[in-house]
Amino acid sequence: MECKPSSSMRTSQQTFSTDDHSDRANQNGEEILPRLPPEIEYEIFTLALKLQRKDCTRLMCVAKRVEEWLAPLIYNVLSFTSVLGKRQTLSTFERYGHHVQQILIICHIPITESDLFKYCPNIRVLGFWFDVSLNKGVFGLKSLKSLILDDLDFFQTERPSMKTDDIEKKAWFSNITHIVVTTILSRHSSTLRLFPNLTHLMLLSSNSQDILRHILRSYPTLKVVVWLLLQITSDETITVIDMNSGPAPKVDDERVVTIDCNFSEQRAKAAKGEVEEDVWVVAERTVEERRKQRPRK
Questions:
Q1: pLDDT, tens only, 239-254
Q2: Cα separation of 14 and 19, whole Å?
Q3: Average pLDDT value for residue range 269-281
Q4: Host domain of residue 217
Q5: pLDDT at 257 over 80
Q6: Could you give the number of structural domains in the chain?
Q7: Which of 130, 155, 172, 284 has the fewest CB atoms found within 10 Å of its own CB?
Q8: In angstroms, how far is the first alpha carbon of the chain from the final one?
Q9: Is the dihedral of CA 249, 179, 166, 112 positive or negative?
Q10: What is the pLDDT at residue 32?
Q11: CA distances (Å), 36 to each of 29, 41, 42, 43, 47, in order?
């Protein structure tokens, strides 16, 4: 069973042998040296990876050096879209977790958040498309910048283990600049105050426009607020809706960008480099163009 981190996370038992992954040797046990300069080999294998992502882990079987080249590229982004075995998942994390910078979880995974954070300490983007009860281990992710969560209730400060009065947690909250909330906000919108450097926020268009107005008034640090329409197709196309059209919220604020796209699909493809731009880039460019068109005083 091969590992396909770009779509569903599985662990390869046929792909990888149980040896030390050393370079191939001839019948006399002598190492077969590469016949091309390493930089050319590198270009060949990275190009092969781009062209044939489906069977990407097979390429790492060629030689130890090839595995070292490709593993950071293959396991940079992990997208979980189907239920997996615990042993398989842990095996992959133990070997390649330190390469992971983005984790997008669309279904339940059979490991604890503690294991997830232990094996993947370099996560920059963490996304959950369902209700999840994170534990305090999340505060150990020093490089985390972006959150995609079903509910911000996890961060309510009345929970003893989540209080933000120590230096480590204050630093963690200060690191977060991007948040996507995949459900409807209500009274918990005040939780955003925990993130003093929040600059990018994405909300579903099913939210109340009063909540949107309240957020715009209360959080002047926000540079971009994406009002996401609920497109149900698998198309990764990003469509920016005119401010004065029907689907757009009735707010007079150039920071608000109404976008129609399948966000989970588009986010996963953008993270893997399969599309040129992601939603944030498009929204930032839209806000900047509006500012340039603003009448000079």
A1: 898 887 878 888 889 9
A2: 12
A3: 78
A4: 199-297
A5: yes
A6: 1
A7: 130
A8: 64
A9: positive
A10: 56
A11: 21, 6, 10, 11, 15
Query: Exposed/middle/buried for 133, CB within 10 Å: 0-12, 13-18, 19+?
Result: exposed
Residue 146 domain-assigned (yes or no) = no
Q: What is the mean pLDDT of the chain?
A: 75
- What CA–CA distance (Å, rounded) separates 135 from 154? 9
Question: Regarding predicted confidence, which is higher, 59 or 24?
Answer: 59
Is residue 163 situated within a structural domain?
Answer: no
Cα(297)–Cα(292) distance, integer angstroms? 13
The first and second tokens of residue 236, run together, are: 């990764």
Whether 31 is covered by a domain: the verdict is no
Asked if 222 and 201 touch (Cβ cutoff 8 Å), the reply is yes
Residue appearing with tokens 């279904």? 107
What share of the chain has pLDDT > 90, as a percent? 12
Looking at per-residue pLDDT, the higher value among 26 and 118 belongs to 118
pLDDT at position 154: 59
Task: Name 260's Cβ contacts closer than 8 Å, sequence gap at least 6.
Answer: 229, 231, 238, 239, 241, 247
Say which residue, 31 or 74, is predicted with more confidence. 74
As a whole number of angstroms, the distance between CA 223 and CA 177 comes to: 10
pLDDT for 231 equals: 63
CB 175 within 8 Å of CB 197: yes
